[in-house]
Amino acid sequence: MGATRTSARPGARRRRAVPWAVLALWLAALVLAGPLAGKFSGIQQNRSVDYLPDSADSTQVARIQDRLPGGESTDLVLVYHRDGGLTAADREKAAQQIAEITGRYDVTGHPHAVPSRDGTTVMYPVSSTGPGQDDDKRDAFVDGVRDVADGGAGLTVRVGGPGALNADMGKVFGSIDGTLLYATLGVVTALLILIYRSPFLWLVPLSVAGVAAGMAMAAGYGLHEAFGVTVTGQSGGVMTVLVLGAGTDYALLLISRYREELRRHERPYDAMRAALRGCGPAILASSGTVAAGLLCLLAADLNSSSGMGPVGTVGVLAALVAMTTLLPALLVVLGRRVFWPLIPAFGSEPKARRSLFSAMGDSAARRPAAVLSGGAVLLGALALGAFNLPGTLKQEDSFTKQPESIAAAQTLTRAYPGRSSQPITVIAPTGRTDAVLAKARTTDGVAQATAGRSGSGWTEISVYATAAPESAGETRTIEALRAGLDDTYGTYVGGPSAQQLDLADSQVRDREVVVPLVLAAVFVILVGLLRSLVAPLMLLVAVVAVWGAALGIGGLAFGPVLGFHGTDSGLGLLSFVFLVALGVDYGIFLMHRMREESTAGAEPRAAALTALRTTGGVIASAGVVLAATFAVLTTLPLVALVELGFVIAVGVLLDTFLVRTYLVTTASVLLKRRVWWPGRLSREPEPLPVRRQPETV
C-alpha cells in the first residue's frame, strides 16, 4: 500500500502541474506578442500597386514615379456640377476655391479649368507630391481639399481622381480590422452559447480563439518585418476570420471528444489525454490541409495572393497551437464543472436518443445510389449558375456604399463622353520623350498626351483616352499603347486602369499554377492520414463540386439579388483555395472516425453510419460556425470581400449539410471496403479457423 501511494503522488503532482505550466507559458508569450500584434494594422498596404506582381508594367511605372522629383504624386480631380448648367457665380466660386487650395498646399503647376461641352460641369485636375508615400499625409491632403471644396444652392462639388479613391479605399480597409474582429466574435459567441447551452463553457474556446488571433497578428507582423511579406487589408481580414472560424471548429471537435472521455475517465487530465489521442490526428491533418493549400499561394504572381498564403498559414497554425495546448490546459484546470448544468459524470452513459444525423444516415443508406446521383445532379445544376456571374469588377463598382471619389468619377463619365478624366501614365526614357509623345498622340483612342515630371533618366507622360475609364475602349487604347511603344522605345504603360488589367491577367496565370498545386498538396496529406487512394480522391471530387456549386449560387445572387455590376478577378482562385482546404476538414473528421470504426471491426455500412452519427452533430456545429464567420465579410463595404465571404459561406454550408451528410456517406456505403483501397482495410478479413469438434461415441 505504501509503495502504491508513493508512486501515485508524483503522477498526481504531474497532472496538476502540467496544465498550470502550459498556462504560464502562454501568459509569457502574450506579454511578448502583445506589442507586436498592435502593430499589425499599421503594416497593411492597400494601394492597387501593392497587389500587383513585380513584373507588371504598371508596377514599374509606380516605382519609377516614386523616384521622380517629389516622389509619388497624389492626383485629384475637383468636379463642379450643376444640372441646369453652371452659372458665372459657380465658375467664380470654383476659381476662388482652386486658388485657396493652390496657396494652402504644395500643388504641382497651376490647375486649369476643363469645362464640359454641355456647360454643366467643370473639372480641375490637382496634383501634389507633398504627401509622398505617407498614407496619413495623403489622407490629410485629400480631406483638406474636400473641406475647401464646398458647393451648395444646387452646385455640387466632389473630389475624385486616383488619390481620392486611394484615400477612400484606405479608410475602408482601416476600419475593417476592428469591425471584423468584433463582429466575428459576436457571431461566434452567439453560436457557441446555442451549441453548448452552458453559461460558462462557451467563454473558454472563445477566449482561446481571441488569444490565437492576437498571436496570429504578432506573427503576421513578424513575417512582414523579417521577410517583407505583403500584408493587405484583405489578407488581414481573412486571417482574422480563419483564426476564429477554424479555431472554433477545432475546439468543437476537441470538446465533443473530451465530453465523451470524461464519462470513461475519472480524472479530467486522463480524459483530455485520451481526447487528444483520439481527435488529435484529425485536427492536425485538418490544419495541415488548410496550411498546405494556403502555402500554395506562394506560387502566385500577385503580391496580394502570395502574401495571403503565409499570413493565412500563421493564422491557422496559431489556432491549431492554441486549441491543442491552451484550450486543453484551461479545460483541465476548470474540471467538469465547466460543463454545468450538463456535467458528464464518470461512469454515466449519454441519454439514448435518435439524433437527426442517425435518421439522415439511415434514409441515405436505404437508397444510396439514388441519393448519390440526385446530389451530384443538384450540384451540377447549381454550378451552371457560374455562367451568370457578372463581368470583371471595375473600381467604380467596388464599394457597396458609394464614396465621394466614385460619385465624382460617374459625374465625369456623363459630362465628358469624349475624354477620359483618368490618365494613362507612360514612363519613357527622357531622351526619347518627344518620340514617345508623337507616337502616343497618333495612337487610336488617344485624346491628349502631355509630358510631366522628369528625373533619374525618366519622364512621366499623361495620356488621356477618348473612352471612359475601365471601359472596353480604354482597354483597347492601353493595349495599343503597349503594342506601339514596344521595346525600341523602352517605355512602361501604367496608371489605375492599366493596374486593373495587369491584376486580371495575373489572376488567370495564378489559377493555372496554384489550383493544381493545391489539389496535389491536399491529396498527399489525405493519403498519409487515411492510407488510401480512393477516399482522398472521393473527398477532393466532392469539394471541387461544392466550389463549382457555390460559385453558381453566387452567379444567381450577385447581379439579380445583390445588384453587383462585376465579379472580383481573384474570387475564383481564393474561393477555390479556401473551399478545398476548409471543405476537406469536414471530410477528414468524418472519414477519420469511419476509419476508426472499420479498424475496430465494423462492417463498411455500419462504420459509415456510426461515423455520421457520432461526428454529424459536431461537423454541423463547426460548419455553421465557419460559415457564419465568413458570412461576416458580407457586412463590409467592399464588393470583393462580400463576394468572397458569400461564396465561402454558401460552400461550407453545402459541404456540411449535403456533401458530408449524404454524398460522402452514400459513396462510402456503395464502395464498401474499396473506399480504403489499396490499404489493409480494403481487404476482406480472413475468417477465423473453425475448431474440429471431437467425435462422440
Write the layout of secondary structure elements.
Blueprint: H1 2-37, H2 48-51, H3 57-67, E1 74-81, H4 88-104, E2 114-115, E3 121-128, H5 135-148, E4 156-160, H6 162-196, H7 203-227, H8 233-262, H9 268-295, H10 303-334, H11 356-366, H12 368-383, H13 404-415, E5 424-429, H14 433-441, E6 446-455, E7 458-465, H15 472-484, E8 492-494, H16 496-530, H17 534-557, H18 571-599, H19 604-631, H20 639-671
Antiparallel strand pairs: 1-3, 1-4, 2-3, 5-7, 5-8, 6-7
Helix pairs in contact: 1-7, 1-10, 5-6, 6-8, 6-19, 7-8, 7-10, 8-9, 8-10, 8-19, 9-10, 9-16, 9-18, 11-19, 11-20, 12-17, 12-20, 16-17, 16-18, 17-18, 17-20, 18-19, 18-20, 19-20
Task: Please explain how this structure is put together.
By secondary structure, the chain is α+β, with helices and mostly antiparallel strands. Helices cover 63% and strands 7% of the residues. It has a four-stranded antiparallel sheet, with helices on both faces. A four-stranded antiparallel sheet has the order 6-7-5-8, sandwiched between helices. β6 (446-455) and β7 (458-465) form a beta hairpin. The relative contact order is 0.11.
